[in-house]
């Protein structure tokens, strides 16, 4: 029965996929409803496959089954992305198309058609889709791509395994392109079902021809278009062929001695190529060979020079390689032809006349034998006997004997033995001798000075011996007193005897004997002999003493011993006179009698007796021998060696001076015999090591050397000297000079004004000099450095700078300089503090401070005073002491050198309570002073004062003024000016607003101008009525030279300023738009200012108050002369008073000093500068804290006027 599956029921379809229709029996008649049926199909893995299914009833539901699993009617076949149905369903085309087939697609397939209105259920016959999987790899053992080395004729096993494939692949082996038949194949299951692996094994026997060829494993399969292959390269080893020797000549083995023989040995074939070796009688003689790999030929060249001993030698060439079973050889035996290496004549060719000479001629071995013949001159002689004997190396020795009667006329002829042979036709071998026939000389005599003539020692004398005839030449031998005369050549001595060679002139022979006469030649007999002939002569020589000797009766001498010295002249001709002296002092002695002496001369002696002392050590006792006839004196001396203990000499240095950190040498001048055995130095009871130390060394002469000397090394050093005769001691003082160091310097030194004081400076130094103290005043100006009114005193190691009637101008820094000649000088700083009572700043007539009395603002009152020591401030209000415990009152005190400040801050200023007169009182131990400050309400500013001209040109004028009280609000300045002959006024604002100088430009030359200066704040301006704020000028003409400005010249209007009409009177000036805008802006600003109402009032603005402290030491802002801080010896005991010398001005002027500290209650904050220098003694002056909000308005501006 067929299964009907509704088209619109996909869920039911998926359930059916799980169970399948594999079990449904399809009737055979069902195939009749197909117009196209699937067929068995085979494809290669990765290719596409299509199974045909054509249905006659187009409206039916068609689906495919794979191994019984239904794939569903959906043409896209969900779950199988590579499957889909192709064709037109309306025509009944339901072909199954599979892309990129793999092994999972290898199965049975059938096409099933569901029941429909047009047809019954149908099932196609089952067909098989076979997927062919080609093998991907072949694994070869040995490894594919490698080269294997095999020996020819041996059997080897090779295996080849394929990768997974379907069906199992076929494996074939090829050896050098030929298929191997001896192969075993096994097929096994692969890594997956339906896959197979083929393993094949081959037995290979390589031959010579396989060398370098490939052994290939080839795998073929229906899935492969081209078989896959892997291979290995065969390196087949096989022995070489036999060696061949190339003989260079026709007759193999025949050579001649001296010939250079070159033999080439070759062996062909073989892997590896043959190794060649030459042997001589079985012994290796050459192992060098070369190989031509392309032709597989090995060559070895033997080069040898043939010698006679090579006769019968067998030369062989051996060839083999690593696989040769036996060594192959080719040999040649040498037949050597060689002549005799020498011809020798035995026997003497010298004989007396009329006697026989017997000689033998013998040759060295030769092959073949040689013949001998004799020649005397050009005359051939007959031998008496000839003999042939066996020689070396297979050769023969020839010998010929000759007996000859010699005559005088044969003397000098050449006697020759000649060897010859047909084998050596081009060569002749001979040996020759010169015949020497002996006969005697005929006459002999001597030529020289006459006998008996006196010759002085050192005289050069020449004796000549002459002879006539004789062979051999007469030898002419000289004798002195029966001893043969030779020519001695002692090293480094002049030649006294020069013996010449025998000279020949015709038949006369001569030989010279040149003498430099000496004592031994006196009365000597000189004889010349030639064979049996002889001749003689005798010399008389005068000479000084041959030896002058001093004999002593004692070898060891000590002070007090007696010494007897005897001077002996051994021999002289004629006799001499002896004398003694001691270091130039002549001494008398005792004369001894004359006696006989060597060389047939005379001897003499003289003795003296001496008493020894230590001073005699080393003195020379000189003995002189004088010959009157020879006018010559000979001297010798005896040096006295007196043993005595050490004695220090008078030149011994007892005091040594050295500089600290330098070197010192303590010398030793001592006399002793023997020399001192040891020099022991002690210092302060401690013995210095003789081996030396880190800072000392005892020199070989005993001197003590010190380095890096310190003042602790100063003192006495004891030296102990000792020898075998006794000891001695000495004291040497080391005086160490060192640079001064300031030990005591009282800093600061204080004195009341008008009093007297000593600035004391105590130093440690060596040496201490009377004038080594010096003082300097440190100041910026040259006049500040004067010490004319001070007294400098030096007492030993202490220096004083005495000041009488101290003045404020003398306060400041002083420098003590100590210089004793040893660098560097010491420098120490000390400050002189002149104490004085407080001096409060007294503005005239009254200081005003403006503040808003709205109980929300604050005001700061500033009181400043000078004085030393520090000042204590007290405050009163309207004469009543101020209660500083009240939280509305805050008081800060600042000290900077001799300047002191007190800042009283009043919080929540009330007009009813705080608009009052405040009194500040400054007190120190020397007195007190006070000043008054009026706290008032804010108002319009006071007019500026002191308007003046500071510079002028034809087109401009420079102005300067003093600002007035600003009324408690920020003020600005405006200039109004007019040219007197031109109607209208011109206005210009001063920028920046706080400036007190301004250059008015745009004027005309030689013109009169009138200038007004206005001050204004948020409450109004100062008006034009004040005479101190107006001025009249006349600008300089173009031809007017520079000079004082002319205040009568008029001026003109600058560009850019609005012009005013005459209606704008001085009493009521009309403000321009710029001025109004500035007024509006200034309403937001606040100020609290100090001023006076005097015509030239003292005024010091506190708006920008920021106390300026003197620079720290790191900033090196010292006055001139205060520049030695970096020196190592600068002493800083105690504290420094910062710039004390600037705080006291002898004129008492406050201006420049006061201006250095500017105060402003609107900028009340502590300075961030740190003054940690321990040398400062006064507290720093800091800024004030600002209690006011920057955006707050005074209560007057807020509408609450008091």
TrEMBL record:
Composition bias, Basic and acidic residues: 1059-1082
Sequence segments annotated as region (Disordered):
1034-1091
What's a GO cellular component annotated to this UniProt protein? cell-cell junction
The membrane-topology field of this record reads: Single-pass type I membrane protein
Q: Can you give the residue ranges of the Fibronectin type-III domain?
A: 943-1037
Picking any one GO molecular function of the record gives: cell adhesion molecule binding
Q: What InterPro entries does the record tag this protein with? A: CD80_C2-set (IPR013162), Cell_adhesion_signaling (IPR051275), FN3_dom (IPR003961), FN3_sf (IPR036116), Ig-like_dom (IPR007110), Ig-like_dom_sf (IPR036179), Ig-like_fold (IPR013783), Ig_I-set (IPR013098)
Compartments, as annotated in UniProt = Cell membrane
Keywords annotated in UniProt: Cell adhesion, Cell membrane, Developmental protein, Disulfide bond, Glycoprotein, Immunoglobulin domain, Membrane, Myogenesis, Phosphoprotein, Repeat, Signal, Transmembrane, Transmembrane helix
Phosphoprotein recorded as keyword: yes
User: What is one process in the GO biological process aspect for this record?
Assistant: muscle organ development
- Where does the signal peptide begin and end? 1-22
UniProt keyword Coiled coil, yes or no: no
Q: Where is the Ig-like domain?
A: 27-124, 242-333, 340-434, 440-540, 544-635, 740-821, 838-939
Chief location of this protein? membrane
Taxonomically, the superkingdom here is Eukaryota
**Function of this protein?**
Seems to play a role in the development or function of the kidney glomerular filtration barrier. Regulates glomerular vascular permeability. May anchor the podocyte slit diaphragm to the actin cytoskeleton. Plays a role in skeletal muscle formation through regulation of myoblast fusion.
Family, similarity comment: Belongs to the immunoglobulin superfamily.
Name it. Answer: Nephrin
Source organism per UniProt? Pipistrellus kuhlii
